[in-house]
Amino acid sequence: MTRNYRLSKALKEKIATISRELEINQQDQVELTTKNIEIEVAYEELTAIENEIRSNYSLLEKKQAELEIAQKQYRDVVEDQTELICRYKHNGELLFANMAFCRYFKIDSNHYKGIKVKEMISQSERNTRSAHYASITKEHPVKTIIHKSLFPGEEFRWQEWADRAIFNEQDEIIEYQSVGRDITERVIMKENLIQTRYSLDHMTDLMIWCRNDGTIIDTNSAVSNLLGFSQTELFSMNIMEIIYADCSLDMKRFAEQVHTKNGGGPFEKELRAKDKTRIIVEVFMSAFKYHGHNLYLLCARDIRTKKIDEALIKQSFSQIEKNIEYFSILNDQIRNPLTILLTLASDLDSDQFVEFEKHIHKIDEIVDKLDRGLVESEKVRSFLRKHYWEED
After folding, report:
1. Residue 360, SS3?
2. H/E element holding 114?
3. In this predicted structure, what is the pLDDT of residue 225?
4. What is the pTM of this model?
5. Which of 94, 168, 247, 317 is the most exposed place for a label (fewest CB within 10 A)?
6. Taking the mean position of all CA atoms in its chain, how far away is CA 350?
């Protein structure tokens, strides 16, 4: 009995142990199943990530190819530009230059790297260029400058440059990108215009430009100096306001009238000064087109002094005429008495007659000189009349 009880107790313990082991195995099986499920999920996620990476890699390859095409297209565009394009370090060493830049500065397109841009700028312009770079900031990264460059053969050329600074993450300038163009012809034209304007403003003749309706658009300094109007006042006026003419005429009809009467030649007119003074001038007027607009140029010369001189010349000619006429009469008045005296002297004795005749001949010689002088005076009168005076 006791033995059976012991066996039963041992069996129960063994069964309990097996049960616990089975329970542990079941738990392990559940954990294993869970782990397998997690592994399967992780594998699926990994597979999805791999597929996404493969897709992204394909997309990256595609984008890389597109970027290379875009870079080539961009480079082709830059190379085909007529503008001078370059990129250089903060110290001025060239990193890139397009063909137009290389051709312009006569440098090898394959060996431009390392060349410093300051070597292409004339010595006199370098301080200005340095100040220009100093003015470029993060807030104002693009600045424009005009300077000249010295070329082989001591030739100067002018360029206009737009410089853009490239900054790093610390807001420090690391590079510059510049786009330039040659403006030498424009600079020369501007200098010529300044010289022309200077010449026009120092002329004594008046120059007035106006539109077809007579609105004054420009004048030289002589107009203000003579008439007393400032340029600001003149630019708000119509040309007909300073020309004494038929008040019913506009500029177009006035021009037609002038052309009809003078055939395009000079004509005399009175101008009205600011103080109401009438100033007689000789005017030459021409019409021309500018950008499709009809414009007029009036060149006028103050001839008040000329008119005074003409009056004096006329008076002088009148006096010359009177003098010639007077001397002609005087000549006859002297010769006639001499003839009578010589006839009367024939009653004198021979010695007295000889002496008297000698004095008569001296007087006659003087009269001959007066005759010759009269002839010369008439020649002078003809010359002066021909070259300096034309009778109305």
Report:
1. helix
2. none
3. 94
4. 0.54
5. 247
6. 97
pLDDT tens by residue, 239-265: 888 887 655 556 777 777 666 665 667
**Beta-carbon-side half-sphere exposure of residue 233 (alpha carbons within 13 Å):** 12
User: Tokens representing 349?
Assistant: 């004795």
Burial of 297 (0-12, 13-18, 19+ CB in 10 A): middle
pLDDT in tens, 311-327: 887 787 777 777 777 76
Specify burial of residue 91 (Cβ count, 10 A radius: 0-12, 13-18, 19+). Answer: exposed
For the stretch 386-390, contacts whose Cβ atoms lie closer than 8 Å and that sit 24 or more positions apart, written own/partner, are 388/313, 389/310, 389/313, 389/314, 389/317
CA angle 10, 13, 19 (to 5 degrees): 140
Alpha-carbon gap, residue 200 to 163, rounded angstroms: 38
| Whole-number Å distance between alpha carbons of 20 and 27 | 10
CA distance 346 to 80: 116
Q: 192 or 321: whose pLDDT is higher?
A: 192
